[in-house]
Write a structure and sequence with these properties.
The structure is a homodimer.
Chain A (H helix, E strand, L loop, with lengths): L9 E10 L2 E7 L8 E2 L2 E3 L6 H13 L3 E10 L10 E10 L7 E2 L7 E8 L12 H14 L3 E2 L4 H6 L1
Parallel strand pairs in A: 1-6, 5-9
Antiparallel strand pairs in A: 1-2, 1-4, 2-3, 2-8, 5-6, 7-8
Chain lengths: ~160, ~160
């Protein structure tokens, strides 16, 4: 079976990296959601394990080497990205060998213009790209009680926030 | 971005359904792994949320309506399926409204020939398709201590079993 025979959801990864109560976010320099904050992430290549895509994308967009802690969830609502049906596996990561400063230039091009570290609660009032506000809401729940998440899980709770 | 522009991993789902200490497995009637036991599962369609693919595939292969409990993990080693780079999101499900008998004919065609309910420990000595033996090993860990899993996580432990 070839990926070119059928249209299929496109696998991506996003990574939540928290340090000192702040989340590493990327201010997007390109459409869609130009100027908005997004989690570091990107596309998974054929032949690449998704965990390797997560560490590679985190490094490309933030210059950091990270370790993976857990999978927060898999988000695959077909309307979550205007470019097509992109499904994201979201990892919770930790910084393994680098230091992060408050404002750090991203090392690589991609869609990352600038890294910003933002307090989790302050993100509620920020312009957040894609469904990353729901993802960060789910991350707050995860910090309290664990669990895994997907697009249609706890929607009513999310909408109430 | 179109899924046809690049070769990408192909998203699939598999579902672990345990009842009375036994796991619902499908004896495959087609290659690859013809005659081996596999978890119920299949491909995710474009435009379909992965959680909906999981409940649909479980129903197509076992006739059961299931609910989803958690995501066990995302398995994406490019060698895990001889047909190509298939990445599977594995859900833990529960039977929501049907009864399961020890031997039940699958209702739909697909790759399912017959449903068998097998004690988790007995699966160690069965012919298991794909990387589903590792997945079921991870499921045992999950039952003890939770967590989420991926292809390269705890490989040394898995190989020791």
């Amino acid at each position: 079976m070839s990926s070119n025979r059928h249209k299929i959801p496109i696998p991506t990864v996003d990574i939540i990296i928290e340090q000192n109560s702040r989340i590493l976010m990327v201010r997007r320099k390109n459409e869609p959601y130009k100027g908005c904050l997004a989690l570091p992430g990107g596309f998974v290549n054929e032949g690449e394990r998704i965990e390797d895509a997560a560490t590679r994308e985190a490094n490309e967009e933030t210059s950091l080497n990270i370790g993976l802690v857990e999978i927060l969830g898999v988000y695959s609502d077909p309307t979550r990205d205007p470019r097509g049906h992109l499904m994201s596996t979201v990892f919770v990561g930790i910084i393994s060998s680098d230091n992060v400063t408050e404002h750090m230039q991203a090392s690589a091009g991609d869609d990352a213009a600038e890294i910003e570290c933002i307090y989790l609660d302050a993100l509620d009032n920020s312009n957040i790209a894609f469904d990353h506000k729901k993802i960060l809401f789910d991350y707050k729940i995860w910090k309290l009680s664990g669990g895994t998440f997907w697009s249609s899980k706890n929607i009513s709770n999310t909408e109430a926030v």
